[in-house]
Amino acid sequence: MKIVNQNERASLRRRVDQGTEDQRKSVQSIIEDVKNDGDQAVLRYTEQFDRVSLPDYKVTTEEFEQAYDSLDGEFVTILEEAAANIRAFHEKQLSTSWFDTSPDGTILGQKITPIDAVGVYVPGGTAAYPSSVFMNVIPAQVAGVERIAMVTPPGSDGSVPAGVLIAAHILGIQDVYKVGGAQAIAALAYGTETVPAVDKITGPGNVYVALAKREVFGDVDIDMIAGPSEIAILADETARANEVAADLLSQAEHDARSSSVLVTTSRELAEGVQLEVQEQLKELPRQDIARQSVEDYGMILLCETWDEAVDTINEIAPEHLEVITEDPFQHLAKIKHAGAIFLGPYSSEPVGDYFAGPNHVLPTNGTARFSSPLNVDDFVKKSSVISYSQQALQQNGDKIARFARLEGLEAHARAVETRKERWK
Fold it and tell me: Residue 353, annotated ligand binder?
């Protein structure tokens, strides 16, 4: 992991992977096939890409039972406690409809309505992610979404990881489908004989999933286009090198394209973390992935001042930001752009990934400059409510008509003026 000075570094913001032209065309073709052939196309692509032939792909009651039989009760208890923490956090985000009455009798307000149906994509591949089930499903449930379907790629034996199924079962999600990739997104967006169509799709996936979400956006809503995982750590001389290195590697092991960056004013810490990363890599089961990540996208950035260090963090706008300093709250007000902020030496990033309660579906690739973590508001619609009184229209009708004519919209003006007949 290289140490660089501020004036030596390259750009810290990575471009979103837009995919190749061949990948985009492949995704478009898959989506069209699923639109036209439904389940037949889904099963065909599952066999082609996941190398498993399935007679059907909805998870059965027996598969849920087998999942419980395969894991010990202590793990189930941990999952249940994590789900409770996540639900408690998201319940604090819940908004309610509101109405305001003016003295002239006008009623204005906002009506909040949950989305009818949501599809959740839970990634598979090199790891199992029961936490993704919780983070996508719970805010939707808190928002009041009535129907939630879940898709996740099957393993080579046609199964779904037990932890993923147990997480779904804890939340009462019964509509779980063994399908991944672009074909899963298409099935959720347009429906098949097995999968009813939804109104919004959330959850991260590989480049084909991301491209498919781009393609279907507009026919359905999506949460975001998630890039590889990122962590930035803002640390001073009080931080421990072994802890900082472990936290950097916690994201590096996700994906060879993950980014892990330390920003510090302490050369001693920088050199200590550099050594620790190399030592700890030797002990990681996923060391090949983590090593490539830190070599290609890892960096220790040595700044001269704290203002420079904080400015650098805001430039990165990281998905995860840890602040490990003598007084981490001192810097909080100056941090403008970060998906999730972890303050202090005991707030290691996995605390938020799994257990504390805040959502771990976060903006990546610098999009924390303008977007937020997945939250309850992502699963509701807000309708404006206008009930104008006769008195209000008498007072303001001429103004509204003149405004309409300013824009050259005569019919708009007349629509208001026709009401004058009522009070002649």
Answer: yes
Domains (ranges, CATH) in the chain? 3-12+228-356 (3.40.50.1980), 21-222 (3.40.50.1980), 390-423 (no CATH)
Q: What is the pLDDT of residue 422?
A: 82
Task: Please tell me the distance from the alpha carbon of residue 202 to that of residue 221, in angstroms, as a whole number.
Answer: 9
Catalytic residue among 243, 319, 322, 349: 319
CB 317 within 8 A of CB 337: yes
Residue 320 catalytic? yes
Task: Express each pLDDT in 293-326 by its tens digit.
Answer: 999 999 999 999 999 999 999 999 999 999 999 9
Residue 350 contacts residue 245 (beta carbons within 8 Å): no
**From 320, 322, 331, 360, the catalytic residue:** 320
Which residue matches tokens 């899963």?
184
Which ranges in 191-327 belong to alpha helices (H)? 207-216, 241-252, 267-281, 287-297, 306-316
Q: CB neighbours of 338 closer than 8 A, spacing ≥ 6?
A: 232, 313, 317, 318, 319, 320, 321, 368
Q: What distance in Å separates the CA atoms of residue 218 and residue 388, rounded to the nearest whole number? A: 32
Is position 236 annotated in a ligand binding site?
A: no
* Rounded-to-integer distance, Cα 296 and Cα 256, Å: 8
Distance, in Å, from the CA atom of 386 to the CA atom of 195, rounded to the nearest integer, reads 38
Specify the pLDDT at position 124: 85
Q: Is 360 annotated as a binding residue?
A: no
Q: Which residues contact 36 (CB under 8 A, 6 or more apart)?
A: none
**360 included as an active-site residue:** no
**179: nearest Cα among 30, 384, 13:** 30
Nearest C-alpha neighbor of 1 from the set 225, 226, 303, 298: 298
Question: Is 50 annotated as belonging to a binding site?
Answer: no
Strands 340-343 and 320-324: parallel
Edge-to-edge strand list for the sheet holding 98-101:
98-101, 107-114, 380-387
Q: How far apart are CA 46 and CA 160, in angstroms?
A: 14
Containing 341, the helix (H) or strand (E) segment is: strand 340-343
Distance CA 375, CA 373 (A): 6
Q: Is 102 annotated as a binding residue?
A: no
Q: Does residue 409 register a pLDDT over 60?
A: yes
The residue among 43, 54, 49 whose CA lies nearest residue 157 is 54
- pLDDT (0 to 100) of residue 290: 96
